[in-house]
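Progress report, Aim 2. The chain analyzed during this reporting quarter is listed below.
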Amino acid sequence: EEEEDKEDEEVEREFLETEEGNEDARLVAKCDDLCPEEERTMRLARSDFDPRFEGAKGELLMKRFSRTFNGNPEEVRSLDAIEKSLERVATVIEETIGGVCDCLKRDENSLDFEALKTFSELADFVRDRSRAIRGDLTAQSASGPKSRRIMRRLVHMMIRFDYEIRKRQRLRAYTYIAQWVKFNYSDPDARRMIHRDHSMALQFREQLGKSLTTYSIMCTERAEFVSPEDKAEILSYRLLLRLSAKVEEEEEEKEKEMEGNRSSSSSSSSKLDNIDFRAAELGVLNSPIVSRAMYLSVCVDAGKYVSFFKTIDSESFTFLEFCCVYACLDPLRARYISRSNVSHNRMKMKKEDACSILKIQHVEKLNLLLFKTFTDSGETDIEFSAACKREPKEYEVYRTKLESVAIENLYLESALTVVRA
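Predicted structure tokens for the chain:
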């Protein structure tokens, strides 16, 4: 792989020197460690590191992101050092994170707040170090084959970690619903924790969007050397993440209207909106992965929710694509149920049929969605009604098995395994 990178770099360099002039003026990184010496010395003297992520004595200290840069090449890591840093971030994720059910106290069927706190600190670490990696690549105007390979792996890792953030965010929100009697949702502490989860998710999604943009720019600069498959992959992820963010924002606006709060929400889809289709090649636009992303957007806009869920359940739909749209799945399921209350007024549907249509593995998850949409149901049937009551009939929502609610993987592949190819 290293030899192929060198050969590809040489071919690209010869082309650039012939067609566009020499690039020797760009900054040459001189730091070959995970962290520049000056930063390392200062932080070790202050014990300014987390031993869980950077070694008990700071021996695995990694460069932090900094907004200020004075152009000193000693502070910029080489591509080899950046690659090692990315590997280290991936290792920290694998060593620290468990399954989403590890955030539950199974004997009490409640949240493990210590586990959630650790995950939140891990999320801050991953976001900052990923940002520093992107900053070092940008500082040296790197866009060759090795740089693109690093950015591609960084994007994959961030998409998967974004999925982990969203799972825990949803688990906490559903726990409050399932334990409504014990936990007052209007309680300031509950609101504060939900807001913190929401902020963490937005901040990470913003950095993911910027990383995708950086990777896209790299590929555009060396378009002749980037495969159509890689170009299509970038575009599809940007489309799917934009779709997911758009649905989330619409749901947030609805909630604010119900609460009488008309303040504007912070937009995350705006970070992903700048997609210039005119620059895309026809073969890329017609590729299966991009066509699928566009079709899913059309399904959401047209309210074709059954078609949407059929598509994401197809064998060709990859796990990374699933991670991109995960955050909008339950809002779209809720929309389907709410619309069915009108279109299927006074009709019934088997819960197992609804689970099959909406690709829900456990009926406990469906029960929570029915509760959220004020939809009546019995033990086995959903009872649709256009005159939705504010208080649905009693069912097992308060005794929901949170472990079943937490599990929603459509595939056996683990979200913790970082794509290294």
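The radius of gyration is 24 Å. The CA atoms of residues 26 and 223 lie 20 Å apart. These observations will guide the mutagenesis work planned for the next reporting period.
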